[in-house]
Specification:
Pfam families: OB_ChsH2_C, zf-ChsH2. This protein is mostly beta strands. The protein is built from one helix and nine strands. The model has no long low-confidence stretch (mean pLDDT 85).
Amino acid sequence: MRDVVPFSPPAEVDFDAGTRPYWEALREGALSIQRCAHCHAFRTPPSRYCPHCRSTEDEWPRLSGRARLYTYTIVALDRRDAEGPVYVAGLACPEEAPDTKVFCNIVDCTLDQIVIDMPLELVATEAGTDAARFRPAPATAQGGR
């Protein structure tokens, strides 16, 4: 069975003021996504104005860290090694914003455990320098779907 490993970027992420709340929340073990303060629509990636109502006012609420896996891809770190480690990049839909997709890294599992729509829970990242990390959550955490 191939090991699933966390993705580690080669350098620290260079974030700007528009994404700073996202990275700071990850550093603190939380998930925060930009939301329009006027119509309350979540949006990713962050933008200066809401695509729904055009408001420039936003907020960054802290979310529960529970999500569902929307899609994923398996990336082999060394294609020549059929048994070598891989990392899994995916898109997760947060429980509070099911129509919003967050780029993430799936960790703490084997490849055969990964299925579309599986419940996920946020994992604290190392210094908030990479994508959000999620691991499989118990099915009862989100209604057992």
